[in-house]
Write a structure and sequence with these properties.
elongated, 8-stranded mixed beta sheet, 17 strands, alpha+beta, BirA Bifunctional Protein, domain 2, binds magnesium ion, 25% strand, binds adenosine-5'-triphosphate, 13 helices
Length: 443
């Protein structure tokens, strides 16, 4: 329900201008009357004046109403509750104590939607806040993260477009699994078996034959049963695939992309990084160190970790390897057993594959998985059989090796993993507006 409470002011031209706070906090607007629309973030008052923090998508500004100058306005303002939506007209004044340097002296006020008591207050449990996620998204922290998220996606697209990659779209409903059966979400597709996709890779591989370098930004779904701080069941996956490309060139693309994303966030999101206490996010410059999987295992063993050659690296191991790093690192040549069937075995040692994971520093761990794919038809068929996959479901994928096959490589970047690192988050759930995890699909 929308409640409109009007004070006795003529509103004839009131709705016209549409400023954002960020536009008017400069000396050009000093002593000018401007109109703002937004939500009430905080209210403080005495019997002389009311201070109201107005939040709009761009910032938060303190607004003042003096009882002495307009009593009816003061009375109207008294009715306002936290998170009510309002439209105000006021004069821009300097305010040395304000973090933004300016405040607004309100002349006119219109309450658009009077809010019921806002359920989010201080010191509430994480579970409660997740139940109220639709409202919690108004917090400064989440607003800042979502703005950074937008820059990450935007700048990634920019980088791909500048480097001759074509953006494509791929299906989310599939029948041929990419990353193994354990994390597949089943779907009853008109009485046929289908799945939600874990990765768009196989489809990107089909598209390189017509479009060359391609990329997609789409959700991937994985029924992750273990509770970790870096797994969602629905995450946004930025995947790229390049024809005539080996693992070395593939790593170079990743370095450039990451360097570009970080540079963009550091330039565009200074305020947000500050709010998140992340203004120390360092500049990231290529090349990134490259460490062989064998060497990573030795390092871990020396540090007393109980791990053997042939084991995959998990959250804990990657944390140890990256805790004191300033740059991301590549770990390359993993054993073929811990990687997908499609990875190309190394020419010198077929027990390992020409792949690399990119691990973010400061303990965040894997943000990209990538590598060169098998382009030989017979070898691919052999690997599909070895992994006990249903060869019929991969017929189309094998076809790609029959008609002009080429060496090709690609990678998949977890958008929320990158945001977790950039924003310095403890948990991946805050990197996406409505997180999906093993025990949460609401709201
Ligand atoms: P992990 O070992 O952490 O489970 P993975 O080896 O399964 O990762 P890939 O299959 O290589 O990951 O997927 C490519 C990228 O997608 C990963 O590097 C990561 O950034 C992201 N990713 C994978 N699974 C998830 C998930 N459940 N939630 C969020 N991001 C994910
Ligand atoms: Mg996984």
């Amino acid at each position: 329900m929308i409640i409109t409470l009007l004070s006795n002011i003529n509103y004839s031209d009131f709705k016209m201008a549409n400023y954002l706070i960020k536009d008017i906090i400069n000396d050009n607007y000093l002593n000018e009357e401007v109109i703002l629309k937004g939500w009430v973030y905080r209210i403080r008052g005495s019997n002389k004046r009311i201070f109201l923090l107005l939040r709009d998508p761009s910032n938060i500004i303190q607004c003042v109403i003096e009882k002495e100058s307009d009593e009816s306005l003061y009375k109207l303002a008294k009715k306002i509750t936290i998170e009510s939506s309002i439209e105000i007209s006021g004069v821009v004044k300097k305010d040395e104590r304000s973090p933004i340097g300016y405040e607004l002296h309100i002349k006119k006020l219109k309450i658009i939607g009077l809010a019921e008591p806002f359920p989010i207050t201080k010191d509430q449990s994480i579970e409660y806040l997740l139940d109220k996620r639709h409202l919690w998204l108004r917090s400064r922290k989440l607003i800042s993260i979502m703005k950074i998220r937008s820059t990450v996606l935007q700048s990634a697209r920019e980088w791909f477009n500048k480097n001759g990659f074509i953006e494509v779209s791929t299906p989310m409903i599939i029948t041929a699994a990419c990353e193994g059966g354990a994390t597949l979400f089943n779907l009853n597709y008109f009485n046929h078996k289908a799945y939600l996709t874990q990765s768009s890779q196989l489809y990107l591989e089909a598209l390189i034959y017509s479009l060359g370098r391609v990329y997609v930004i789409a959700p991937s779904f994985r029924a992750e049963k273990s509770r970790t701080v870096r797994h969602l069941t629905e995450f946004w996956h930025l995947e790229a695939e390049q024809p005539f490309c080996d693992n070395e060139q593939n790593m170079k693309y990743q370095e450039e992309l990451i360097e570009y994303i970080i540079k963009s966030v550091r330039e565009i999101n200074k305020n947000e990084l500050k709010i998140l206490n992340r203004d120390k996010l360092p500049e990231i410059k290529k090349p990134f160190p490259r460490i062989k999987y064998d060497e990573a295992i030795e390092t871990l063993q020396k540090k007393g970790v109980n791990i053997m050659w042939g084991n995959d690296l998990g959250t804990e191991e990657e944390k140890i390897l990256t805790l004191n790093n300033r740059l991301p690192i590549f770990i390359y040549n993993y054993p073929k057993k811990v990687k997908g069937f499609y990875h190309k075995p190394d020419d010198n040692n077929p027990e390992v594959v020409n792949c690399a994971d990119l691990l973010a520093p400061e303990g965040h761990g894997e943000i990209i998985g990538g590598g060169q794919r098998i382009h030989d038809k017979e070898l691919l068929i052999k690997r599909i059989k070895e992994e006990n996959l249903d060869i019929n479901e991969y017929e189309w994928y094998i076809d790609l090796r029959k008609y002009g096959t080429v060496p090709h490589s690609g990678f998949g970047l977890g958008v929320e993993r990158v945001i977790k690192w950039i924003c310095g988050l403890d948990h991946i759930r805050d990197a996406i507006p409505f997180p999906r995890t093993i025990n949460r699909v609401y709201p």
